[in-house]
Amino acid sequence: MSRLRRTFSRFVLTAGAALVFVAPAAAHAPADYPWPKRIAAAARFADQRAGAVSFAVVDESGELRGDHPSRVHSSASVVKVMFMVALLREPGVRHDALTRFEQALLEPMIQRSDNQTATAIYNRVGEGALYRLARDAGLDHFTTQPLWGLTTITAASQARFFNGLERYIPKRHRDYAMRLLRRIVPSQRWGIPRFVPQVWRLHFKGGWSGRPSWRVNQVMTLREPSRRFSVAILTRNQPSKEYGEITIEGVARRLLRGYD
User: Fold this and answer.
1) How far apart are CA 149 and CA 84, in angstroms?
2) pLDDT value of position 244
3) Is-contact 82 132, C-beta < 8 A?
4) Distance between CA 14 and CA 239 in Å, rounded?
5) pLDDT over threshold 60, residue 91
6) Which helix (H) or strand (E) segment is 43 a member of?
7) I want to staple 22 with a disulfide (CB 3.0 to 4.6 A). Which of 18, 123, 141, 237 is the partner?
């Protein structure tokens, strides 16, 4: 059947995940970077904020660090990255050029976090594809919900997922997918992006929702040709979106101070 006529339907890093896309050896990491001190400072700040805050870092050696990294949160729009990957993994898509219609769904969903196109992709790929992706990526506590923004995730699993993201994207579409995650609209570059060292290439996705209470999240990976690390910061019960953004900024500032 022609693709254009297809029915529009619906905390452990494994050895296999380290094969190609995991962070390089520890020798490339800034050995003197005081991660324990930075994690402790970020945790103290987070403890002073309203609601619940969890964060995780996968450093350049592949080690996971954080505060409440396995606490379960609702994803909000962070899950849209999984929607994108699930669509790109479809049998009729993974080896073919994307249609204009598929690009018209993916680009607004990622670059400006459009919800209508996200719902269309969620309905198209279906829950089964998302669970298969979660299983392949080793995502703990992942469950879909009737409202996709309530999908459950953890900071640890999202930091790991982003750190090896290309591994789950078909080779044909890797450059395209990673490019979308670099080209988020300026109005959504709050939080972590404000504190990223200039020499790094940033790929990220944020999410927020006020139903039933404010959840503001952000996940990112920083890349150089031979280096990478990832950060996930998840919040819930924030008094407002703006408050949640300040929470994420405060955690990111304390985690990344002096990093190069």
Assistant:
1) 15
2) 97
3) no
4) 38
5) yes
6) helix 35-47
7) 18
Are the C-beta atoms of 209 and 215 separated by less than 8 Å? yes
* pLDDT tens digits for range 174-188: 999 999 999 999 999
Distance CA 219, CA 76 (A): 12
pLDDT in tens, 200-220: 999 999 999 997 789 999 999
Q: Is 27 helix (H, G, I), strand (E, B) or coil?
A: helix
Pairing status of strand 52-58 against strand 201-209:
unpaired
Distance, in Å, from the CA atom of 158 to the CA atom of 147, rounded to the nearest integer, reads 19
Per the prediction, the chain carries an average pLDDT of 89
Q: The tokens of 194 are what?
A: 């404000």
Phi, psi of 219 (to 5 degrees): -135, 140
Ordered structural domains, the chain, with CATH: 24-256 (3.40.710.10)
pTM (2 d.p.):
0.88
Q: CA 100, 169, 86 angle in degrees (round to 5)?
A: 65
Cα 113 to chain centroid distance, Å, stands at 13
More confident residue, 25 or 150: 150
Largest CA distance in the chain: 57
Radius of gyration of the chain (CA): 17
Write the single-letter amino acid at 135: R
Helix spans in 48-173 (H): 80-88, 100-111, 115-137, 155-163
**C-alpha span between 68 and 174 (Å, rounded):** 31
Task: Let me know: does 124 contact 148? Beta carbons within 8 Å.
Answer: no
Q: What is the reported pLDDT for 22?
A: 38
